[in-house]
Amino acid sequence: MSRRPRASRSAVRSGHIAMVGIPAVSHVLPSLEIIRELVARGHRVTYANDPAVSDLVASTGAELVPYRPTLPVADNNWPDDPIAAMELFLDDSIAALPQLRAVYDEDQPDVYLYDIGALSARALAERQGRPVVQLSPTFVAWNTYQEDVGALLWGLPGADAFRAKYASWLAGCGAVTTDPDSYMSLPPRALAMIPRVMQPHADQVDTERVTFVGPCPSGPATRGTWQRPPGAERVLLVSLGSAYTRQPEFYRRCVAAFGGLPGWHVVLQIGKYTDPAVLGTVPANVEVHS
C-alpha cells in the first residue's frame, strides 16, 4: 500500500490561533517554540498576555494581545495556603475574561491554546464554540487524580467556599463545562510539555486526551550553554520554577545532602529572591544560580 504524501507547509490552510498565557516566565518559555513553529507555518497567532513578557512573545513572531493579569508574579508574593493560591488563579480568570472577550468576541480564532494558569481561555472557547487545547508545562491529571489529590485539597479549610465561588462563575460566564473539578483538571485536549517519564501515574493518563510532546527548547544561541563538569557521574538539577522560590531551608538541605557527595554535581537554582549567602559554605560540586 502506498503511503499518502505528507502535505507541504504551503498546502496547509492558514488560520487564526489564539494563545492565552500568564506572565510567569516558567509558564511562557516552555511553549515558545510551539508558537514560533505555528507562525513559521503561516498561521496568524495572537498571544494574550501581560505586556511584561512582550519581548518573549515578539521573538516568536506572534502578535501580542495585552491584558492585565492579577497574579502576584512581579513580587513573587504567593500564599502558602493551597486554597488561597487556587483562588488567586480563579480571581485572575474572572478579571481576565472580560478583557479577552473585548478582543476575541470581534476577532474569533479558529482554535484557542492556553496555559494551565490561564483558565479563562477555556470559558471563552466554550462560549464561542471553538476548539481549545491546553499547553501544560508540568504534569497533567491522571484518571484517579480527584481521588488521589482532589480529596485532600477539598478537605482543607475554605475549600467548600472556593468550589462554590468557582461553580457560580462557571454558571454565569458562558462556559459549557460547569463542574469545577472537570473544568480545572480535565481539558478536552492537552499537550504535556514534559517527558512522559516525569509524569506521575503515567499509565493512568488518558492518551486520547493528553499527548506528551516533551520539552521544546530553543537553540543554544537563545538559551545559553552548559557543560557537564569533568568527573560528574551524576548531575542533579534543583529548580522550583518561577514561583514559591523563597525556600532557603530547602536549598540548605539540598546542599547538605549532596554537597561533597562523590560523583555528584549539583546545579541549584535559587531564584532572585534568595540571597546565596543564606546557603552558608557551598561545596565545590554545587553551582548556584539566581
Descriptive notes:
By secondary structure, the chain is α/β, with parallel strands linked by helices. The protein folds into 2 domains: 10-212, Glycogen Phosphorylase B (Rossmann fold); 226-289, Rossmann fold (3-Layer(aba) Sandwich). The chain is 33% helix and 16% strand. The protein contains 10 helices and 10 strands. The protein has helices at 25-28, 32-40, 54-58, 82-104, 120-128, 145-153, 159-173, 180-185, 220-223, 248-258, and strands at 16-20, 44-49, 63-66, 111-115, 132-136, 190-192, 210-212, 234-238, 264-269, 286-289. The chain has a 7-stranded parallel beta sheet with strand order 3-2-1-4-5-6-7. It has a 3-stranded parallel beta sheet with strand order 8-9-10, covered by helices on one side. Strand 2, helix 3 (54-58) and strand 3 form a beta-alpha-beta unit. Helix 4 (82-104) crosses helix 5 (120-128) and helix 4 (82-104) runs parallel beside helix 7. The longest helix has 23 residues, at 82-104.
Write the layout of secondary structure elements.
Layout: E1 16-20, H1 25-28, H2 32-40, E2 44-49, H3 54-58, E3 63-66, H4 82-104, E4 111-115, H5 120-128, E5 132-136, H6 145-153, H7 159-173, H8 180-185, E6 190-192, E7 210-212, H9 220-223, E8 234-238, H10 248-258, E9 264-269, E10 286-289
Parallel strand pairs: 1-2, 1-4, 2-3, 4-5, 5-6, 6-7, 8-9, 9-10
Helix pairs in contact: 4-5, 4-7
